[in-house]
Design brief:
Length: about 350
């Protein structure tokens, strides 16, 4: 029985990896720059489009290499907000989601780094679906390329690694994708407009600070108290808050960036007076701002345990909470819920294909 040859996937290779690839197949290294440009700048669908490569090389690549890693299987747009959700197939029955969030001054693409997520945060639909696999750098980048082809590349101004998965548990692929995105040819989006979120993998925050890639960090805080974080974010038992705060201070110092603290408002759990005091103390110790996020229902997932008991803080209490923080000179944004009608809002990404 003839075993089908496995093709080399080029999408996701950095320029130096592409150079090594072309050397390994007996081609001149400068071809790597041409293919890098075709893949990441022109978003080529097919090797035949790469007109400045000799025909013999285009044929050779078509036989031995792959360009795309993902297939678009569905997309849906919210009638009320224009939020657009894409469902992509990442092979072997793994499906992932990406979301475009339109706002008045920017359009943000939210991308996934894992199919599912192992961290089991109790307020998050992705956590409830469990972990399937780490995405490759190519699968991370293809979310941008496929969305840009559909939505209009010039319309995507920001990228956030806040979709399915914990980015820093897929560190190597995330780092390669940041390196590729940070090339202006690829996206035209500078690292200042790219944010990596984390639930708190302290040693990897430090490693990212030392990588030289100055993306912004959004830290999923959700409580300043370890006992509450332990309950709603089990990863806190492994990397308690103090370890993460030390790593975030180092990140901010090393990269010169401000940390965003993400804070999902949960009634009676993290919206009390003592939570305000603790947030003021924390934010006064590190260059930062806070995003207050209304909790989105997980009812479409039929959750059990703590997740079934979680309730959203009322809009009025969120506003009061924000005002009290602002009165202490803390920068606070209250996020509007976008895309909950298509299960594309924060914490709702989970594919049931
Ligand atoms: S909030 Fe993020 S880290 Fe936590 S379970 Fe959901 S996807 Fe994973």
């Amino acid at each position: 029985m003839k075993i089908k040859d496995v093709k080399t996937v080029l999408k996701g290779m950095t320029l130096s990896e592409l150079k090594n690839y072309f050397i390994s197949i007996g081609e001149p290294p400068f071809r790597s720059e041409q293919v890098f440009n075709w893949m990441y700048n022109h978003h080529a669908d097919d090797f035949r489009q790469m007109e400045n490569l000799p025909k013999s090389l285009r044929n050779k690549l078509a036989e031995t290499a792959e360009l795309f890693t993902l297939k678009t299987v569905d997309s849906e747009i919210s009638g009320s907000t224009g939020t657009k959700k894409y469902v992509f197939s990442a092979g072997e029955k793994n499906f992932i989601e990406s979301v475009i969030i339109p706002e008045s001054k920017r359009n943000t693409l939210c991308i996934s780094t894992q199919a599912g997520c192992p961290l089991d945060c109790k307020f998050c639909a992705t956590g409830l679906m469990g972990f399937k696999k780490n995405l490759t750098a190519g699968e991370i980048i293809d979310q941008y390329i496929l969305a840009a082809k559909d939505y209009g590349r010039e319309k995507i101004s920001n990228i956030v690694y806040m979709g399915m998965g914990e980015p820093l548990l897929n560190y190597t692929a995330v780092l390669s994708s940041l390196e590729i995105f940070s090339d202006e040819l690829t996206t035209g989006i500078s690292l200042k407009k790219i944010t990596v979120s984390t639930a708190g993998i302290a040693p990897k925050i430090t490693e990212l600070a030392d990588s030289g890639l100055k993306a912004k960090i959004a830290f999923s805080l959700h409580s300043c108290f370890d006992d509450i974080r332990d309950r709603i974010m089990p990863i806190n038992k492994k990397y308690p808050l103090q370890k993460n705060i030390e790593a975030l201070k180092y990140y901010s110092r090393t990269t010169g960036t401000r940390i965003t603290f993400e804070y999902v408002m949960l009634k009676g759990i993290n919206d009390r007076k003592e939570d305000i005091n603790a947030l003021v103390k924390l934010c006064s110790s590190i260059p930062s701002k806070i995003n207050l996020i209304p909790f989105n229902s997980l009812k479409h997932m039929n959750p059990g345990g703590i997740s079934a008991d979680l309730e959203p803080t009322s809009q009025q209490r969120i506003e009061e909470f924000a005002d009290k923080l602002r009165s202490k000179n803390i920068t606070v944004m209250v996020r509007f819920t976008q895309g909950d009608d298509i299960a594309a809002a924060c914490g709702q990404l989970a594919v049931n294909y």
